Amino acid sequence: MKRRPLVALSSAAILAIYAAGYVRTRGAADRFAAEAAPRRAPAANPPLVQSAPPLPRVQQGEPVIPPPTRQIETRARAAAGQTPAVTSSPAPDVVPQPAAPAPSPAITEYEPPPVPSAPPEVPAPTVEARFKDGTYLGWGYCRHGDIQASVAVEAGRITSATIARCLTRYSCSWIEALPGQVVSRQSPEVDYVSGATESTDAFHDAVADALSKAK
Amino acid sequence: MNATGSSIHTITVMGTFATIEVVGDPSDPKQIAEREAAIERAFGWFDRIEACCSRFEPASELSQLARQIGVPVPASEILYEAVQFAVAVAEESDGAFDPTVGVEMETRGFNREYRTRRVIHTGIAARGVSYRDVRLDPKRRTITLLRPLMLDLGAVAKGLAIDMAARELASFTGFAIDAGGDLFLGGCRLDGAPWTVGIRHPRDDRALIDAVRVSNRAVCTSGDYERRSGGDAGHHIIDARSGTPATMLASVTVVAPTAMLADALATAAFALGPDEGIRLLERHGVEGLLVPPTLQRHATRGFPSDYSILQDTKGPADDRLRDPDGDGGSDRGHQPDVWCSR
After folding, report:
1. DSSP strand E in chain B: where?
2. By C-alpha distance, which of B17, B332, B340, B86 is closest to B194?
3. With an 8 Å Cβ cutoff, are A190 and B167 in contact?
4. Which of A51, A197, B291, B338 could, after both became Cys, cross-link A116 (CB 3.0–4.6 A)?
């Protein structure tokens, strides 16, 4: 059987795709360079990405809602410390965020941190759902416990999705980490942790449950 | 305390949370703007690759490919490279890893679009298919499915998106990309030291089973604890040779130059089991830690395990964050330039 050098193959794939996609990204970079100086940092680039978990299709002719700013954190890292520090000085456009809660035992309720959300950039062609305006609550479940999401809909579109409550075996700090601080979610000892969490699905379930009430 | 910081953004994509951190000076607005723009571009790759490679999205290029059997279909650069790589990994693992398990995954309950939780049903009757039913024409850049089948590029597409994001951020001295626990760590942290990465314990998600110190490396983990389908039908890694969930290992972590490679080989090694898995990793010159359900460790010879990281804990995170002596907690004797000379 022939053997293939996978390291080289993966590197070649990345270069090929990057070369093919370069025209587009270069355009964005140039546009950004032209606009960056006089403008505020986060607003200078059009959002390329969609951030809200479930995204309804953009209705044609619908008034454009200004994109909610994706959560931006300028996070201080101790200069030589092992531990990533938690939110400090807000950058312009920062969504106010509660300070990282001290680990608390057992069932906890807390003020929801904002979840990054933005209107869809790419229409999801198969999702025809149009949601009624309002704020909806929904539950998601994982083996740690339950997560409640709060989803706000304005003009038929999701304008925010936040974690409203978490009822879990452990403290809520790991849930609180989901929207903005996934980085330090599991361990104070290391910068990052390799290995997936199950919490994402629970959050998405909660958002989907909330949206099922918005039809 | 030193006025140091990083730009960090998180989005939801590919059924998980993706976080990108770019290290830099928080006091220079121009630099901040550059970092923010680069992070946007990096996230753009996640969206592009997901839109192309998702089997949950009927309009994706991958789904469209599945509707054209027996004819060469011209493929985008992203889809062609992803499929070509997935097939190569299938060949390398003698079919234990196989991207044609899409329908098998669907029937096992991995059938929900994560944003809407909508159940998908492709209606494809894929019996006895394998990667040998996928033909690639490197000159014309076409893909031909010889039989009805649905490709599952899950083990490749996320890694590819991480790699493309890393390529986009390559000019920065330090950055980290975390897509649901699959990581790429570029350059160094702000203090000039390499990044420290903990490896999740497969049976206790609040514990770490090992840790490594890395720079310009991907660290990807496949575990039987992730993505269980509805009920208890099993986890998401199928040994394509038997068509059933692989059970010999609880988790596999691979440290490699690209995330695409690390993710795919972690999945392949998981399906192969500890002995064949180690051989596969060593043959390709990447490092790995394979942990069976009984929790013995099987590692490649060069696996950069560094327990000292885990013994570094000095108490609760919150106390350490305050950094009372203002020196940034510097007491470890790092050798920044050794790691971060560029």
Report:
1. 5-13, 16-24, 73-74, 134-137, 142-145, 174-179, 182-187, 195-201, 204-214, 217-223, 238-239, 244-245, 251-256, 287-291, 298-299
2. B340
3. no
4. A51
The 10s digit of each residue's pLDDT in B318-339 is 333 333 333 333 333 333 334 5
What's the mean pLDDT when you consider all of chain B? 82
Fold of the CATH domain B194-308: T-fold (3.10.520)
Q: Which of A66, A195, A74 is nearest to B28 (CA)?
A: A74
Whole-number Å distance between alpha carbons of B59 and A127 = 11
Q: B206 and A191 in contact by Cβ < 8 A?
A: no
What is the fold, at CATH topology level, of the domain defined by B61-152?
A: T-fold (1.10.3980)
A34: contact with B, CB 8 A cutoff: no
Tokens at B300, concatenated: 């490649």
Rounded average pLDDT over A88-103: 38
Q: Residue A181 in contact with residue A111, Cβ under 8 Å?
A: no
Nearest to A211 by CA among A143, A160, A168: A160
Return the pLDDT at B234: 55
Inspect the interface and report whether the beta carbons of B329 and A81 lie closer than 8 Å. yes
DSSP state of B243: T
Strand order in the sheet with B16-24: A73-75, B5-13, B16-24, B174-179, B182-187, B217-223, B251-256, B287-291, B298-299
Separation in Å, CA of B315 to nearest CA in chain A: 9
AA letter at B157: A
| Domain(s) of CATH 3.10.520.10: residues in chain B | 194-308
Q: Are the Cβ atoms of B33 and A74 closer than 8 angstroms? A: no
CB contact under 8 A, B44 and A48: yes
Residue B116's pLDDT is: 56
Comparing CB atoms, the residue among B116, B178, B284 nearest residue A127 is B116
Assess whether pLDDT exceeds 60 at residue A75: no
For residue B225, what pLDDT is reported?
77
| Residue in B with minimal Cα distance to A185 | B206
Give the pTM: 0.68
Q: Record the tokens describing residue B328, joined without a space.
A: 């940034």
Phi first, then psi: what are they for A73, rounded to 5°?
A: -120, 130
Structure confidence by residue, pLDDT tens digits, A39-68 = 333 333 333 333 333 333 333 333 333 333
* CATH 1.10.3980.10 placement within chain B: 61-152
Rounded Cα gap, residues B116 and A27, in angstroms = 32
